[in-house]
Batch of 3 targets.
Target 1
Amino acid sequence: MWGLLLLLLAGCRYTFWPVVPAGAGAAFPERLSITGELRAEGDEAVASLKLVRVPRAGYLVARWYAGNRMLLSKAVFIEQSGNLKLKFPLGKGYRQLVLVWERQPVLQLSIGVPRVPPRPTGSPGSTRPQEP
């Protein structure tokens, strides 16, 4: 009886192993942190950007797209946190701004309404059965 009780109580011991051992502190890489908005002002699109964290000096590349066609590309050298305004020609239709830092896209902003093709009439989900 006592043997069974000791065996059951031995299974209730605290047996936690830490996920990351002490002293193995892995540092996270420094990354660019940026927020922004894109709005229309007359015949221009104005991107108001806030650079929250800039790990090192470098080029922020802004690529202006109409659909899948790149219309314009600008490169701005940044060294520190702050605010930045970029202007682009605004045409009709859907436009996108993609910001690239060290060959990695970091922010995408869009303006306008994307063109979405209509649902085909013969597709299975195009008509709903009428309920009795």
Target 2
Amino acid sequence: MMNAGGSKDDKAVERPADGVVETNDFSGEAPPLAMSSREKARAIRPWVDPEERIRVDFEDAVNVTAIVRACTEDTVELELETAVPHHRQRGTVPLRLVEVGEDRGRYTRNPEKPLRYGVLRLSIRQPRVAMVSDNP
């Protein structure tokens, strides 16, 4: 938007220190803020816990329950729930394809940790079947 002086009105967007973008709606949609891979990894690492579940949205599947197994500066390793009980799909996704947000409609489940409303939500810009599989 141009003001009367002909210059753009640039609004500074502040990002929380932990890098997680909170959303007020329950769809998990985060406003489009560009995060570096380092910021994404910093936001994902606290969720590396086999007792905690996160939500993942792919291009062809939404609201998939997953566990974060590991996270490096370049990739995140996920374990996705499937329709078959006790069988999970493992895979690694490059962080350049991941958008990080928070699902405020959920809460943490590990009883050893304090209750916290809001769980990690990852939006991955590829179909679920295209995720690089670590399973043989």
Target 3
Amino acid sequence: MFFYIGLIVNVLGMIFVTYKTIKTNNIISPQMIVLFGLFVYLYLPAVIMNSKYIEDNTFNFILLIGLAGAFFACNRFPYNIAKDGTKRECRVPKLMYFQIGAYIYLGLLFFQILQAIISAGGILAVFRINRLDAYLNGEMISESLVIELFKEGLKILFYFYITYLIENKKKIKGLLMFAVPMIHHRFTAVTRYDFIAMAASLVVYLINKRLIGERDFFYKLEDREKNGVRKHKVSFFKLAVFGAVGLYFALLFMRIANYTRFGESASGLSISFGSILKSTVLNDSLYYEYLHTLYEAVKNGKVRFECGLSWFIYPFVNWVPRFLWPGKPYTAFSARMTDSIYWSLTSGNPVVTFSIFGEGYVQFGIFGIFICSYIFLKSRWINFNALKKIKYNDLYMLILLFSLVTYMRSEAPIFYAMIDAIWLYIIRVTCTYVQSDNR
């Protein structure tokens, strides 16, 4: 019973946050990602698979508490991340610094692509080996913290520079540069969700800037003017059609990419929507099942409540390099739970993720699952607010926004939010100058 109550509440919540988002003349918001994410990752797969855990009323009541917390969190933040009515100082990038950072980042990406090709023995060979093993046993566990921090700062400069190029009539150069990290993703075992998030970020950015297709394709002018400015309204029908087409290609990519990252052929893949959807659910969307396993592990004492370790302790432990602390525990929640419940990360098996509900529940039980959505959104809102203070922020803001799609499956991105917050402060202080008028 509680499962179906939660399902109905989730669907109504999706409609509500979509309406609130479109009302702000926007086509995507963090609130939509949270509510749609819960539906796509938890409720929809359970229905399609007819999960036996649907009958577990205690478990599903806990999920319902989490949904209530998600509603609470969604209404604590504005629905338009770019404009919240707050007047802010806008600083303009010193172009040379952003350009140098962008090209250094490009060089690092090309080096890693070349490294992957040489290691595999050829370009095509990259897609015939199990790159997931190399990722799990290499970069994820042992990559230098210093290199990771350095790359994150360069990445921010890179996407700011691309935005500058696109907005200053150098769209071709900007789009070609954007293609490099997309190619880099396909040559590494970074999660497929990141690739989709990057592609979606660019598409939405171009739509918002009206640089593709028919002008005002997703918008229709209102008949009246407000304060002397003609207003735009989102065309819900066109948005729905475009979203459906985008969903199909995203699902198709997920299936093909899943084969290639394990070094397998996708030649026998059925491309019908129903087949792709079912295959995606059965192979990539078992979060409802994993979450129930985690719930049982807590109930049976196999996993203990962490009392906030994921949110308040491990993000700071992350700053200690592993070479200084060889026995440092896994700081990622999903990695710890996978190691405790399923298998060692060095076994070659992938990391199991339990959604932000799983992380919240293990932190503080029912209270944790209620507040996890708020902590999840708050961790990135600090970055959104910092980004608004620097010109040419649009594309990177969308990349951070769509990255929430990936993190929804696992945990709040607190550590990476801290890194971005530090870099954005450094960039704003050292690489920009004050512009008297606001954007």
